[in-house]
Amino acid sequence: MIYRKSIILKNGKMALLRNGDEPDGLEVYDVFNRTHAETDYLLAYPDENCFDPEKEAKFLSDKTKSPNEMELVAIVDDKIVGIGGFEAIGTIHKLRHRADFGVCILQEYWGLGIGKAITEASIECARNAGFVQLELNVVADNKWAVEMYRAMGFVEFGRNPRGFESRISGYQEVIYMYKTL
Predict the structure, then answer these.
(1) Sheet holding 14-19: strands in order across?
(2) Hey, how many other C-beta atoms are within 10 angstroms of the C-beta on 20?
(3) 85 phi, psi to nearest 5 deg
(4) Residue 4, class by beta-carbon neighbours within 10 Å (0-12 exposed, 13-18 middle, 19+ buried)?
(5) What beta strand segments (E) does the chain contain?
(6) Which of 26, 36, 84, 142 has its CB 3.0 to 4.6 Å from that of 118, i.e. a possible disulfide?
(7) Which CATH superfamily is domain 4-180 in?
(8) Within 10 A of 76 (CB to CB), how many other CB atoms are there?
């Protein structure tokens, strides 16, 4: 699935959203590790990353070739500053209508509209790929993200009070959300 769009950020700079692809492997690997070190709201810690730059490159290439999954990169000033996308939850009949979404942005680029733009692109592309439901998990204390997702039409369908076990703060409540496409 191919996507490419330029957007103007809240600070007036231009950002390019496009598919991550094989040549981006090392930079995406680095951004993944940096974003996961900068906040305690994401699923994993950098030392738990099961990818290396080569596996990341293959992952990005596979997503670009996929007819129904996608991994985007956000580029500002010729550097990748955010990544996000969606993948099928399953291929069996009872699951193939659902996709899982995730996004991470380098902290210095928070609040500029990159996360929202990646989310909007993922919603559009997931719908075009034939999914009817896009799902995500978000830490309840991540108030900014929760409000953004609600404003974009995601609906809470459950909570897990011990959804994540943080190395820093103990258990974190996780909100399960979905959006009908």
Answers:
(1) 4-8, 14-19, 70-76, 79-88, 98-105, 133-139, 170-180, 155-166
(2) 27
(3) 170, -160
(4) exposed
(5) 4-8, 14-19, 70-76, 79-88, 98-105, 133-139, 155-166, 170-180
(6) 84
(7) Gcn5-related N-acetyltransferase (GNAT) (3.40.630.30)
(8) 19
- 79-88 and 70-76: which strand pairing? antiparallel
Q: What residue ranges do the domains of the chain occupy? A: 4-180
Reading the block at residue 93, the tokens are 């009949």
Mean confidence (pLDDT) of the chain: 98
Residue bearing tokens 């991540």? 142
Contacts 24+ apart (CB under 8 A), 46-55: 53/25, 53/26, 53/29, 54/25, 55/25
Mean pLDDT of 30-52: 97
CA 42 to chain centre: 10
CB 118 within 8 A of CB 17: yes
Say if pTM beats, i.e. exceeds, 0.70.
yes
**What CA–CA distance (Å, rounded) separates 51 from 123?**
26
